[in-house]
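[09:14] KT: can someone run the structure on this one? pasting the chain below
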Amino acid sequence: MSDAVLAQYVRDGVVESEHRGHLLALNADGSVNFSLGDPSHLIFPRSTVKCIQGAAMVEAGLQLEPRLLAMSASSHSGSVEHIAAVKEILALAKLDESALQCMLDRPLGEAERRAWGDAPATRIAMNCSGKHAAMLLTCVTNGWPIANYLEASHPLQLAIKSELESLSGQAITLTSTDGCGAPLFLLSLAGLARAIRAITISTKPAHQLVMQASRAFPGMVAGKGRLTTQMIEAVPGLYLKDGAEAVEVASMTDGRTLVFKVSDGSLRPFRVLVHAGLNKLGIASPYEVENVLGGDAVIGTIRATF
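[09:31] RB: done, structure tokens below
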């Protein structure tokens, strides 16, 4: 197998389970600091490229205050504040939530989902609704049709694809569909790392606006109690974004970049992998030990292999 063991679930000194995957850490100058697995492995980057989608929209004329721009590049928890922000973006386009074409869903955040209770799923509660609202506003700004804004041939989606190809230095050979319904582009792990590093150190206003907004409003990028928000708040200059099926990206303003994909799609080792990966790059980060319990007693841990 081309992937490698990234993390282990250890019970009483015995490795009970392993999480395999691919990981790449880049130094500030773009050289490889450390890798596991195969950096050329092709993945769907999922929501880790929302900052790039957001930047493409800004370049196409999207204008939002930083708080709402962070929401446009988010996988939000579905709090009252988040849903209100999505409505603000839609109102700027003179639209309401009926224009959204993301999937029906309940809030992503655990507390937010509990508070939602038995209420039916809606499009605005879906964690990608901020991105979709921004897509609609971008279309309205440009006079592009909104009925088919998710089609791969739509001017908006072509602009996003071009932006991703430019930043990654890699041609997109396959376009699929993300869980939210938007086009999803196949990319190598190394290409994703190059793209995140490139947008982080870029001096283009569109790039800096999105990255600065995300760092300034981490509660909009994810939500209370979630790793993304916690880490951005705790580490000055850090950008962090997760994606479905266990993809993660992190970068510092100087260009140091970490990306990984867990092969089994599990989020369980994320906290230890982020902490260990940032440490390899010389970035201090807060860390809570991931305990393995036997009854009420701590008898093991989840540990990174590097």
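[09:33] KT: thanks! The chain has a mean pLDDT of 97.
[09:34] RB: yep, looked fine to me
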